[in-house]
Design a protein that fits this description.
single chain; alpha+beta; six-stranded antiparallel beta sheet; three-stranded antiparallel beta sheet; 5 helices; 17 strands; 31% helix; 26% strand
Amino acid sequence: MYYGIQLAASGALTSLYRTDVLANNLANLNTTGFKPDFAFTRERDPVRAEDGLWAVPSNELLEKLGAGAHMAPNRVDHAQGNLTKTGNPLDLAIRGDGYFVLRTAADGDAAGVKLTRDGRMTRNSEGRLVSATTGLPVLSIRNRPITLDPNYPVTVDRDGSIRQAGVIVDRVQVIDLKDRTQLTKESGSTFAVNSKAFNQAIPATGEVEQNTLEEAAVDPIAAMMGVQAAAKAVGTNFTMISYQDKMMERAINTFARIG
């Protein structure tokens, strides 16, 4: 019966985690460029298999029941969100696949960049194009910050080329990765990327749209239903724990009176 409690407890813990993940998706419903997470579970191996202790005696019947559930790594849904016109010339969105590149290190090497779909940009005091939310410089295709002349309006072509006074002054870098599982999600809509994955980046197939922002790719109805389902699963597993506890109490009280 202790084993039954352990199985139900694993179900409760994984369901609690799924609730947290889905609730976070809902909390970021209005976060520009946000990509929702999906929580996955996997079957936990029996102790002998988990620890490689095949010579240790075990109860084969209990092993066939399974050892409960474990959390598997989260997966990020990189699908595009809805695009909304803003009228701000420094608001950029990517229609299709791709990410803007932000610099965090002085030389803009692979270890010092972040990727994002949040195209809210502005000019800082030095005239550089930076992310409006993080203040990090937006990199050009030459891996350098982009400097704009404040005296001229900005026009951005679909390939990311920036024009001022009819002349191309720079081009916003938009890249994609062959393996997006190499991206590590950070706060908001920002992703960290390791050096190996960044060095294997490929040109993005998406097009840049000016005066536009990408909304969060969260389906509010699906997320709300997911939270409710996960919360219900938590309650169900706690009920099973209570049943197992009552059965144990009854067994102890019954067998204690025998003899």
